[in-house]
Design a protein that fits this description.
Helix content: over 70%
Strand content: under 5%
Low-confidence stretches: 1-17
Order of helices and strands: HHHHHH
Radius of gyration: 24 Å
Mean pLDDT: 84
Shape: extended
Distance between the termini: 30 Å
Length: 177
């Protein structure tokens, strides 16, 4: 059942409630709508990347002389350093934004491993890149992902059912019920 069908069905079966439950119902509907729009956007983007990726695979040259190589890699490593420092700082402060920072750091580490190894193919540096990817970058990325999933599992996320139940428990009992 889609979010729209579920919200229509919930609205039709629930009697009109007064007071605090109306804003909660509006909030839940807005959350459902935002979730649906986000998922639709991501689906369209993922589907749009299929032909783009095929086009790149067919048209990009296999060899390309790169300008600003040093600026690119130093900039990427500086970004990775900032992400790691932000993750450490937010972790020391016990701020919940550490989840976002650690996830971004993990993604940057995976990208770093990918680019280091794939750009070193055909050179003598491929082995060092592969060892660093396998022994440093990827293990650290997967460690961060594991820690983030652990933190998320500890969080108490309100569900639509729990929010509705909490709203109804705040309502005084009706004499005709």
């Amino acid at each position: 059942m889609s979010d729209a069908q579920a919200s229509t069905q919930e609205g039709a079966s629930a009697p009109a409630q007064e007071g605090a439950s109306a804003p909660a119902t509006d909030l839940l509907e807005r959350i459902r709508r935002h979730r649906r729009h986000t998922l639709e956007l991501l689906t369209v983007c993922a589907l749009g990347l299929v032909p783009w990726t095929v086009l790149l695979a067919m048209t990009l040259p296999s060899v390309y002389e790169v300008r600003q190589w040093r600026v690119t890699w130093v900039g990427f490593d500086a970004l990775l350093m900032v992400a790691m420092a932000a993750t450490a700082l937010l972790g020391w402060l016990r701020h919940r934004a550490v989840i976002v920072s650690a996830t971004a750091t993990a993604v940057l580490l995976i990208c770093d491993a990918w680019f280091d190894v794939s750009l070193a193919f055909g050179t003598s540096g491929v082995w060092l890149s592969a060892v660093l990817a396998a022994c440093v970058e990827l293990p650290l990325a997967f460690y961060l992902i594991r820690r983030v999933t652990g933190m998320i599992s500890l969080a108490q996320w309100p569900t639509a059912k729990a929010a509705t139940a909490a709203d109804s428990s705040r309502q005084p009992a009706r004499p005709d019920a």
